[in-house]
Amino acid sequence: MSNTSQKKKVLTEKQEKFLEYLFHEAKGDPLQAKRMAGYSENVGTATVVNSLQEEIGDYTRKFISSSATKAAYSIYDILSNPTELGNKERMMAAKDILDRGGFGKIEKIEVTATTPLFILPAKASSEVEEEYQEEED
What we know:
Layout lengths: L2 H4 L6 H10 L7 H8 L7 H7 L1 H28 L6 H14 L24 H12 L1
Helix pairs in contact: 2-3, 5-6
């Protein structure tokens, strides 16, 4: 992997503030986050968001992963209080967060074969040429 793809993009102070506000005080509202970060009203919200697409994606993945613990506790709480109103919706939301965070149900597939199959390493080109010449003779 090249060094250029591993370099982290240097963000301006406003961009850093925008990301922090977007995932905290603004609760995902990019217009509000833009204002809170100190951007001019003349700067389009789409311009700010487009320039930070990769970072917003990273923050979103981290946000969902960090929410997985709360989702797991919600499921546990439902087990402890199964008759509480709204449990079905809470369970669906918790399950969705866990699935999106990579903690979904793991499905295993068992593969069986009636006759074994062996995959052999490729022959060297000189061996193939020798066999070809023997067949011609």
